[in-house]
Amino acid sequence: MLLVFGVSVFFRTDTEGTFHCPRCGGDRGFRRRRARRWITLFFVPVVPLDRRGEAVECRACRTRFGDSVLRVPTARRLAAVLPAGMRAAAALVLRAGDPAHPAALERTLEAVRGYGDTGHDEAAVRDDLTLRQGFLEEEVARAGAVLTVEGREWLFAKAVRIGLAGGPLSDAERRALHGVADRLGLSPAHALGVIVATEGAAR
Fold it and tell me: Where is the Zinc-ribbon domain (predicted)?
């Protein structure tokens, strides 16, 4: 009787979920798979050998990626986190200045709506101002965790413009802005540079 032996790599699915596929350019389902070599008999795996690593496979295009691809936030997550982070940053800055200033309020609405929360209105801003300081800071930190450095700068600059809407920044507003920058993951020097550049552009 002829016995057919061989060595083949087989994949086993560990977990499934949704990720941002770099090849498809959007949110897709994925399978996280582990590879292992096996000795086969008549093409059936019978003896396990060494492990050959892990891969994240897109269910749509079937492309395989390293685990690091799962650290890229999905569009759905960004759509939820970024407006909340902008709302929180605006509330922290408004509290330090004049929350009722019409220009600051208008700039807040424009900034938050620009991040996708098109229904944000004056009543929502007033509600945000009553939220606990720690909660607002956590929302800013969540946004900072999914943004690139450029994205953090952009959000922070919008917060600076909210502070500038009522005139030159007060000491309290500057302290609040540096607190926002810290939660976003920007250094004090980086934050100061953005503040100075935004002030210059506003003149």
Answer: 20-68
Digit-coded pLDDT (tens) for 128-150: 999 999 999 999 999 999 898 99
Looking up tokens 């994205």, which residue turns up? 151
Q: At what angle do helices 149-164 and 188-202 cross, to 10 degrees?
A: 50
pLDDT, one tens digit per residue, over 106-125 is 999 999 999 999 999 999 99
pLDDT of residue 3: 61
Using alpha carbons only, give the angle 197, 198, 200 rounded to the nearest 5 degrees: 65
159 touches 96 (CB < 8 A): no
Which of 175, 150, 172, 180 is closest to 90 using CA atoms? 180
Low-confidence ranges of the chain (pLDDT < 50): none
Q: Enumerate the β-bridge partners of residue 39.
A: 7, 47
Q: Which structure tokens are listed for 201?
A: 């552009």
Q: Is the pTM of this model over 0.85?
A: no
8 A C-beta contact, residue 84 and residue 55: no
